[in-house]
Amino acid sequence: METTPADLHRVEDRISSIYVERTHIDRDDNAVVLINKARTVRVPAALVAVMLIGPGTRITHAAITLLADSGTALCWVGEHGVRMYASGLGPSRGAQLVMRQAFLVTRPVQRLDVARRMYAMRFPDEDTSTLTMQQLRGREGARVKRIYRAHATRTDVPWQRRDYKPGDAFAAGDDVNRVLSAANSTLYGVCHAVIVGIGASPALGFVHTGSAISFVLDIADLYKADYTIPLAFDLTSQGLVTERDARTALRKRITEGRLLSQIITDIKSLLMPGDQHLIDRDINQLWDEHGGPVDGGVNWSAWDESIFDEDRYLSVSGPDFDEKPGDR
């Protein structure tokens, strides 16, 4: 039986993410089955926001169908979840939010307003309503430096500077840098899943631009100061410096802080007017240049019989089929 939108668990009520590598993924009833040499694990499909599929993984068509019907976002990622190569459909079936996002991001005044409100979420005690993008970037850089120094002092973990090689979280920097990179990569995957899940575009960013995940980077930056930065220093001080340490610890904090619900609330507050209800279903309409959309699934020829008026069109006829080329 196909799952309907009404049957789907809300994104904010789901487990944030599951990372799978070197595993066979199959389906058994309404659960996906993860099989490797060590164990077999059954996972209820509709309780997972995003499944991160890493190297060495095989997945059946039946499992993909179940996950798609359940509204679980799929992300094919590189080792340690650093690079994302492709993503699948999430639970949203409407286009209202992405159309609103496209409207805002293509108009400089509205785009700057959204960017200011993003920064205002990070500077709750400051007035950002008149700042330029240059001023906002400057304040953000100074704020992040203060946060790094504060956590280094709190945990007695040495800190020099942020060191990161794009695309390879464990290729550069000391332990705290590598753990921070791994945690950020996981946070990007979670934010990507929520963005796709509620029907927004990962690519249409307001601060970041030019990337297929610009909006993912925008949203993830809202939470690094509360989640990944303190976590990286905490784990490093305890000697827990592997990618798996970062991923599992962040997942626990995301669950405890109910971050998925917060991400949804924040995205809607940034993109949607406060009194506008989000329509998250396929309403099957056709665009019209006069008076807004019209219903789809309708034979519109009955509304304009003039399209069959032969006097309005030029008709060109060839020779009859029984004529020979030489007969004229």
Q: Uncertain segments of ≥5 residues (pLDDT<50)?
A: 1-9
Roughly what fraction of the amino acids lie in strands?
5-15%
Strand order of the largest sheet: 1-5-7-8
What's the CATH H-level superfamily name of the largest domain? CRISPR-associated endonuclease Cas1, C-terminal domain
Q: What gyration radius follows from the Cα positions, in whole Å? A: 26 Å
How many domain regions? 2
Q: Strand count, sense and closure of the main sheet?
A: 4 strands, mixed
How many E-type strands?
10
Given this structure, which CATH class of the largest domain is correct? Mainly Alpha
Order of helices and strands: EEEEEEHEEHHHHHHHHEE
Structural class: alpha/beta
Principal-axis shape: globular
Mean pLDDT, rounded to whole units?
80
Compute the separation of the termini in Å: 65 Å
Proportion in helices: 25-40%
Helix run count: 9
CATH topology of the largest domain: Four Helix Bundle (Hemerythrin (Met), subunit A)
Counting copies of identical and different chains, the oligomeric state is single chain
CATH architecture of the largest domain: Up-down Bundle
General description of the model:
With 328 residues, this protein is of the alpha/beta class. The protein folds into 2 domains: 83 residues, Ribosomal Protein L15, Chain: K, domain 2, CATH 3.100.10.20; 176 residues, Up-down Bundle (Four Helix Bundle (Hemerythrin (Met), subunit A)). Helices cover 38% and strands 13% of the residues. It has 9 helices and 10 strands. Strands 1-5-7-8 form a 4-stranded mixed beta sheet. A 4-stranded mixed beta sheet has the order 4-3-2-6. A two-stranded antiparallel ribbon has the order 9-10. Helix 5 packs across helix 6, helix 5 runs antiparallel to helix 7 and helix 5 crosses helix 8.
